[in-house]
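Technical annex B. To support the medicinal chemistry partners, we prepared a structural model of the target in complex with P-hydroxybenzoic acid, based solely on the information shown next.
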Amino acid sequence: MRTSVGIIGAGPAGLLLAQLLQRQGVDSVVLEARGRAEIESTVRAGVLEPGTVELLTEAGAGERLQSQGQTHRGIELAFGGSRHRIDLYALTGRAITVYAQHELLKDLIAARLEAGGGLVFDSPVTALESFDGGGPARVHYRDAGGERVLECDFIVGCDGFHGIARQALGEREPPWQRQYPFAWFGILAASPPSASELIYACHERGFALLSTRSPTLQRLYFQCAPDDSVDAWPDARIWDELQARVPAVDGQSLRQGEILQKNIIAMRSFVARSLRRGRLFLAGDAAHIVPPTGAKGLNLAAADVRLLASALAAYFRDGGETALLDYSRRALRRVWRAEHFSWWMTGLLHAFPDASPFMRQMQRAELDYLSSSPAAATVLAENYVGMGWDWG
Ligand code: RFL
Ligand code: PHB
């Protein structure tokens, strides 16, 4: 097989890149290790920035997102027994959309197949070769028929944090990273939303987050120990913990329902030193990870591939390499803004096991400032809805 751009991974980064390239006349093949059914059912992100929604719409995957995504004009911060609204729309003129990542993946896969683009499931990439010199780059992968090779002009690693592209890039220096002393416990519950907007709660027992997926499904998270296990949390214990951390308002407490899924999510910050070597590029979680507190990971993946698609299209149009050479620098500027915001939101809202009484007062003072000063709230709101495209 031969193509212009070999893309590893059919997550949001890989599938959106393929769509954006196709719209600009560049052919590509996406190789994905997992099966379609698994990809279309794995529960992950929910919050999309308005810029991401625009981009997905441009890429031909916006129809269901526009009709079924829920627009939220604000979020709430809960602490000290009460709730405080951050009016995203009044502060920035923009709103976020809540739409499940796996629904978005269904839309991107459907758009790709409808357009007749190359997309191969159940085909793990095993090695990358010749991306550093002349001649075609070679992507080795395995499918039901055995070992195969895809030849291409460029390879893009959109294979997530545990993929192989970053290793193939062979960084000489260690990445920038931070591990947090807690994890998130996530559940999907069959009950209507407990509130009309997302609630981020800071409580002495730990962080909690109420999000939604649909009028009948809630997505809820709470801080747990990094080595906690799903088995240690029977349903009743989960509800007790969530009820304890999120204050009731107007007599309304959390709406409970059947728990359909439970999982534990590691919390880390991570940035690769470089996003390029020769004709191999990295995008999305393969290149950087943020703790989910700022809801930025998928949005960053979309911003990366927006830059990369137009840089690759410019190369295939007239051979110009300027935009490709500038990809790492431009993408990393936005990445570092989101890294800082996600790290800051994490510090603002979690109970750190080693926090001194003084540091807990500092946290409380900052929450109080954010919920009383429009200037302080605007900093949160601007980052939460996403920096404009001029930011990298
Ligand atoms: P993905 O989604 O991990 O996709 C990578 C794909 O590559 C495949 N792969 C391979 N394929 C072929 N050969 C190989 N050798 C391969 N190795 C791996 C994998 O099977 C997979 O299909 O990376 P991508 O595309 O960069 O997308 C990143 C996003 O998925 C991620 O950043 C978000 O989910 C992060 N995130 C959130 N982001 C937001 O913008 N808003 C949110 O509200 C939000 N909430 C979240 C989140 C992530 C969470 N978890 C579970 C980490 C909430 C949670 C709980
Ligand atoms: C989600 O709905 O899954 C979600 C919302 C906000 C976050 C993280 C995850 O910060």
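Notes passed to the chemistry partners:
The two ends are 34 Å apart (CA to CA).
The CA atoms of residues 39 and 102 lie 7 Å apart.
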